[in-house]
Write a structure and sequence with these properties.
alpha+beta, Aspartate Aminotransferase, domain 1, six-stranded antiparallel β-sheet
């Protein structure tokens, strides 16, 4: 999967913004100001960090040891790094983006959830 496809999918979600707060090589996508994915723009193949339920994170790493790794520069209990080298199904990638988005959404304050609902 290329960065344009990944970015477009993420930006199609309600309340998502993008930026480069860590420098030009890390595209950060946030839901209502909270990071839900980071894409390493200087990596080939593309690598992305996604938040994940801790038990599911372990399971995914066991199922896909070459392409789903503990989150690089992140809390390894709650984040995975996916290597998008073409071996992971597009549906799984999008499912894990949705999972990360939904985890962040669930953790938003009541006020931010209300603001998101109004978008």
């Amino acid at each position: 999967m290329d960065i344009e496809t990944y970015r477009d999918y993420c930006l199609s979600k309600k309340g998502v913004t993008e930026g480069l707060p860590f420098g030009p090589d890390s595209l950060v996508l946030k839901l209502m100001g909270k990071i839900f994915t980071i894409a390493s723009l200087d990596e080939v193949p593309l690598r992305v960090n996604l938040k994940c339920d801790p038990e599911r994170a372990i399971s995914l790493r066991e199922e896909h040891p070459e392409t789903i790794l503990p989150g690089y520069h992140m809390n390894k209990k709650h984040w995975n790094t996916m290597v998008l080298d073409g071996s992971l199904q597009k549906t799984l990638i999008f499912e894990l983006v949705d999972h990360s988005y939904n985890l962040i959404r669930a953790g938003l304050t009541k006020k931010l959830k209300e603001e998101l609902d109004l978008l």
